[in-house]
Amino acid sequence: MFGDLFEEDYSGVSNDHYGKGKKLKTKGLEPPAPREFTNLSGIRNQGGTCYLNSLLQTLHFTPEFREALFSLGPEELGSLEDKDKPDAKVRIIPLQLQRLFAQLLLLDQEAASTADLTDSFGWTSDEEMRQHDVQELNRILFSALETSLVGTSGHDLINRLYHGTIVNQIVCKECKNVSEKQEDFLDLTVAVRNVSGLEDALWNMYVEEEVFDYDNLYHCGTCDRLVKAAKSAKLHKLPPFLTFSLLRFNFDFVKCERYKETSCYTFPLRINLKPFCEQSELDDLEYMYDLFSVIIHKGGCYGGHYHVYIKDVDHLGNWQFQEDKSNPDVNLEDLQNEEEIDDPLMILKAVLLQEESNLIPVDQLGQKLLKKIGMSWNKKYRKQYGPLRKFLQLHSQIFLLSSDESTVSLLKDCSLQAESDIRRSDQQLLKTLTSEPPELNDRPSCPHWFDINDSKVQPIKEKDIEQQFQGKESAYMLFYRKSQLQRPPEARANPRYRVPCHLLNEMDAANIELQIKRAECDSTNNNFELHLHLGPHYHFFNGALHPVVSQTESMWDLTFDKRKTLGDLRQSIFQLLEFWEGDMVLSVAKFVPAGLHVYQTLDGDHRTLCEIEIADGEDIFVWNGVEVGGIQIPAGSDCEPLLLNVLHPATSGEEEECQQLIDSPHVFPSNAEIGSVFTAFAIPDGVILVNNTESVGEESWTTIPKEDLKKTFREQGLRNGSSILIQDSNDGNSLLTKQGKWITSMNEIDWLQVKNLCQLDSEEEQVKISATLNTVVFDIRIKAIKELKLMKELAEDSCLRPIDRNGKLLCPVPDNYTLKEAELKMGSSLGLCLGKAPTSSQLFLFFAVGSDVQPGTEMEIIVEETISVRDCLKVMLEKSGLSGDAWHLRKMDWCYEAGEALCEEDAALKELMLSSGDTLLLIEGKLPPLGFLKVPIWWYQPRGSLHHWKSHQDQTNCTFSQGGVWRANSIQDASSDAHAEVSLRYLGDVDISEDATLGELKSQAMTLPSFSEFSIPSPAFLRAWTVESRRPGRLLRVHYQRLREYKLGQRTEICLEPLQKEENLGPQHVLLRTQMRLPGKRAHALPGDLVWDTARGWTAGSLRHQVADFYCLPVEKIEIAKYLPEKFEWLPVPSWNQQITKRKKKKKQDNLQGAPYHLKDGDTIGIKNLLVEDDDDFSAVRDDIGSEKQEEFALGKKRSPEALRVRSGDVPSGAATPARPRGPEASLSIHVGSFRY
Where is this region: Disordered (predicted)? Predict the structure, then answer.
């Protein structure tokens, strides 16, 4: 259904599992890893099956489902051994599920495999790599199980555990006739958009009624005519397990694209479904459900990943955090105390029972609650349970609200029946609040929750579930179990409970086999082979070591444990070589084309072979460390022998034969001078040419200047297989040319240009240094110092820095890097600068003062990566010549602007992921302490509004600078003159705690010196907006709400708008700017503020009535439209009188908060009086002007060369392509055989 909608991204996973030089071993042969400390098993991801893994873990941790499946024996399901027999009726899917659940319970492995299960589904490898929707899978898997279990005792397994019914009723308002229809469900789909949480969604679905009236009447069969009616739905039958599927993914019909709803959506840990049920006469416990699984989707519409939070009902896992392993019982009592305080039902009962008449005003109930637990309802419970009054309404079986909802009391029956229990709970609560430890045996054990993410299982705390209320990583499916379902004591912490005997035996045998394989694997993984080359069996000639007799007799293979020390290895070799006398030196050797060469001598007998980084299959040369066969052996990488092809003239007494070339191989040490070639071939003088071209048939020869003959072979870039030509310097004709070969005077770019930037005089300003990609930066630097004829002391105090195309010096390159590692291209420019390059533990940083930085003007500094932000700031201030402590650091972003501040002053630069080459900005002003905000305050005066506040001076046309002058931002808005400009004046900064309320922020802003120009009676006469794109953005409405709850952030700015009267907007209020159209003028009157109460819904009818009352006009004689400033258009709002189908679509369509209106605070609504003007045009003259300019801009954009090339199909080769093409949608299916007899 959803195709690749939730395709997973594994691009960040590296396939390089092995270290450098290691011998590759087949990972598939290794047994699976054992379980981690949680003692729970995950499920391996087959490529795109995280959605399947999450659902399977939920079913596995549903003990009733698992045990019902285990109760079906082989006599009913058949046996997997018979699945390939043609006449056998083997129910493969339930058998594979049984086996998977047994593995998850008993098999000691980190993660189980679902390969056999998906094979039983009939899925191919393509299907396993494609991810689908878990809600869709839940229905398809249940359907497949029902089909597989036909004819068995478990035929009603799904129906018994998950099946419920809904009753839909339509009641005629005339004759009171009730028309009912029942509807089955296995899971309930609930809305997320425009809903605060699960209980709110259920209230809309099963409490509120849909009224058929006006043009949308209902045809009553009894009355036989169209009548007014009310439609409602109720839960008729509740299953033991209730599944909620959240509609997180929607489709935007305006943008024609999918989107994910990431708004806050709360759901309780325990829910009472009594208000939503048809039959409510049973005890409350019959309707109580506990949350035990939350499937979470992380990502967007076109990619993501699933994992699941699961409550371990049977305590099968080890719910203990790694840092608390030493003390498993730590904080257990504290967690239980928090659980009691977190139950609002118990606390409210306790508060009401303390009242003599059990009757109290709702407002006082909130105050009593504040005194009792030290926190208000809004701060402690509102996010999870909603407003206090709504909570009391939802629990009408306990609380009795008066008709005007001003007072509340406990129901008498409930009060008399539960008084003693509640008083006992209240006493226990008081003990908790006074820090008296409660008795552990008097309360249920703390719930054990785990985060199961494919193979990984981690313990979490119950409060971590709140993090999944909103965001890109948020809850997608909720699973509740009836609170009355109790588990038997013998099932607690017993994974073998109710598992069939044949599966127990299979898992026990598999565990024994795993133990044997792990022991074998451990031995195999820690043993490796070493090739011992014995010194007495080798002799040295032609620059390398060669065996005296044969390779087989000179080399011994030794299998050794790499966890042992070098001393153990030496002792073992002594025991093997009984003939050895004297010292024994072990050295790492390698075969090169010239023979065997000794590199590194091993020392430190106490170090293990792993620490020394000895690789599997390493060649070890065993000798005395000095000589072999009486010849001293050169060792090390510097003198590695090179096998070169040398072309030289033949030596003969006849002059004509001297023109013949002889091609002979010869070995030279890599650190020898190139001029030693003349000595090796007894040639007194001549010219040397080299050829490094790898491609056959395209030889390119380069003549080596005489001054370079003292360079080594390595410095010249020669390697094994390179060719050297020796030619007589007096011979003007090339020997190669005579033999049909061509010599080119220049090679391809094989040099780097080094400029002298040391501010020291030299004969040359820049030199070209020949190099290859494997040349070390240190060698290039030393060559440059020599050729520039600078002081030798610079070798200890200089570095090379790349120069970009703009001439800016970049971060110094470490000396030990090769050109390839430093990502330097041939022909690029480097600067030789004073100062050492940073070490591996240091950072090279650019920094500048202020936010207005021009590229190339930054200062530089080298600091340790472990230095704190505070100390780094001090060093930068000292280097800048600045003083004082009113400074802070910000990181510069890619567009040379100040980014986020480095708030954690004690954090190390390494912890903040800073790297060499980053630029930091010194910004004046001290950062507020942790938990405080520094909020810039602006004065906002809407132009042409119906209310005016005069200041002592009129400076509205001035521009603003941070000195406190007025700034007017001209924002052209074609609707009317009233929206032509937005005037903002900077008043100053306010330092305030995040725990302060919005009212306290307004009060503190009124104390600013610039605010004295205005006469504002109290903070209630101010309206607060966030500043976004230099104009008012989000309205901050609740006067007593804490700033932390607004999630303002460190860079938020606030503008204050003056009011003529006090304003106290609630969550249901929407502030709109309304403008009456002037008849015959194509213009609008000055705007007025309209506060729209949306308590009765975001419907067009509600808004029309509010507007009509505001302008004292008949509701049927007005038309309204929303202004779209970005399009210079008006979007009419219809009256919604057309006939709506009976599938409850009316509420979805008649919602101005959704598409295409998306109505919010600050939007402009145009009003037309049909009594004086009856056309459909809302536009003004400014709309025409703005629209024309917009069309001209779009036309000019289309005529650009790039656009023309794209339209003609001439797309440049470097054009960016989408990171991931969206694949075609594919349906999800599970293939099941027929078991109907």
Answer: 1190-1228
Active-site residues: which are they?
50, 305
What tokens appear for 240 in the block? 């033991």
The highest-level CATH class for domain 641-651+660-728 is: alpha beta
CB proximity list for 840: less than 8 A, separation 6 or greater: 814
DSSP code at position 815: T
Q: Specify the pLDDT at position 95.
A: 95
**Average pLDDT in the chain:** 79
Supply 1044's token pair.
Answer: 């932390």
Q: Are 872 and 902 in contact (CB under 8 A)?
A: no
Looking at the chain, the whole-number percentage of residues with pLDDT higher than 70 is: 81
Contacts of residue 678, Cβ cutoff 8 Å, sequence gap at least 6 = 684, 685, 686, 726
Separation CA 820–CA 828 (nearest Å): 13
Q: Minimal CA–CA distance to 164: which of 186, 149, 197?
A: 186
pLDDT tens profile 390-411: 788 878 778 888 777 778 888 7
| Six-digit token string for 249 | 């993914």
**What average pLDDT does this structure show over 371-375?**
76
CATH tag for 523-639 (out of 3.20.20.140, 3.10.20.90, 3.40.50.300, 3.40.50.720): 3.10.20.90
Q: CB of 38 within 8 A of CB of 459?
A: yes
Q: How confident is the model at residue 317 (pLDDT cuts 50, 70, 90)?
A: very high
Which tokens hold the place of 1216? 């960016």
Paired sense of beta strands 1069-1078 and 1088-1093, if any: antiparallel
Q: What is the pLDDT of residues 127-159, one digit of tens each?
A: 656 668 888 899 999 999 999 999 899 999 999
Beta pairing, strands 887-892 & 966-970: unpaired
Sign of CA dihedral 922, 924, 928, 934: negative
Of the candidate ranges 566-575, 949-958, 1002-1011, the one whose mean pLDDT is the lowest? 949-958
Q: Which amino acid is at 529?
A: E
What pLDDT, on the 0 to 100 scale, is given for residue 824? 87
**1068-1140+1150-1194: same fold as 751-834?**
yes
d(CA 173, CA 218): 10
- Give the global pTM: 0.46
Helices (H) and strands (E) counted in the chain, each on its own, are 30, 56
Question: Which spans in 78-216 are helix H?
Answer: 92-106, 115-121, 125-129, 134-148, 157-162, 198-206
At 943 the pLDDT is 62
Domain ranges in the chain are 523-639, 641-651+660-728, 751-834, 842-927, 1068-1140+1150-1194
CATH architecture label of 751-834 = Roll (3.10)
Look at residue 898 and give its three-state secondary structure. strand
CA atoms within 13 A on the CB side of 195: 22
Terminal Cα-to-Cα distance of the chain (whole angstroms): 32
Q: What is the DSSP letter of 1171?
A: T
Question: Hey, which CATH number is domain 1068-1140+1150-1194, 3.40.50.300, 3.10.20.90, 3.40.50.170, 3.30.420.40?
Answer: 3.10.20.90
> Mean pLDDT throughout 109-114?
94
SS3 709: coil
Q: How far apart are CA 722 and CA 705, in angstroms?
A: 18
CATH top class, domain 842-927: alpha beta
